[in-house]
Amino acid sequence: MRKLLTALTALLFLVPLALAQDAPDKNKKEDTHRFNKAEYLQGTAAGQVKAGSSIKGTLFFDPENQSVQFLRESGSPVIGIKFDAIKSITYEKTNQPRYAAAVLVSPLFLLSHGKKHYLTFQYVDDSGQGKYAIVHLDKSNARQAVACAEAQTGKKVEQIEEK
Q: For residue 155, what pLDDT is reported?
């Protein structure tokens, strides 16, 4: 019985190690440049972001094509910006009170604030006009996206944090 328990314990530790050492994934490097759970905020013709619709998808820094792209959940591109066309990049972290949770759950939620993370690209399009692209990032990968933006584009990301 003791031998059986020892063998089972050894299997519990060795099987995960063996599974973790699979063949290296060719797309692993590419995945470090993809940031899921992002949302592209479309502006209106007048430039109002809140009035426009948003598209859920993935922010992708493509080192091969030297561009940053926003891809829909289906994988089709929404916008593509060449690294050379980017004039500045801004990261903003905002605090917002949690009014809905305070009303529905407890007034104590008014003491805590939700944080939203935005990455804004200022760029020049093909016609020479200045434009902006605003991407709402998920809190789980916002810092990695900022670091990747700096590394891939070679431009310093200005960071703004509300208190």
A: 94
Query: Which DSSP symbol is given to 144?
Result: H
Gap between the Cα atoms of 139 and 116, Å rounded = 7
Domains and CATH numbers, the chain: 32-161 (2.30.29.30)
Based on the number of CB atoms within 10 Å of its own CB, is 137 exposed (0-12), middle (13-18) or buried (19 or more)?
Answer: buried
Residue 20 structure tokens: 């973790």
CB neighbourhood size of 42 (10 A)? 15
Evaluate if pTM is beyond 0.90: no
Asked if 91 and 143 touch (Cβ cutoff 8 Å), the reply is no
* H/E stretch holding 81: strand 77-82
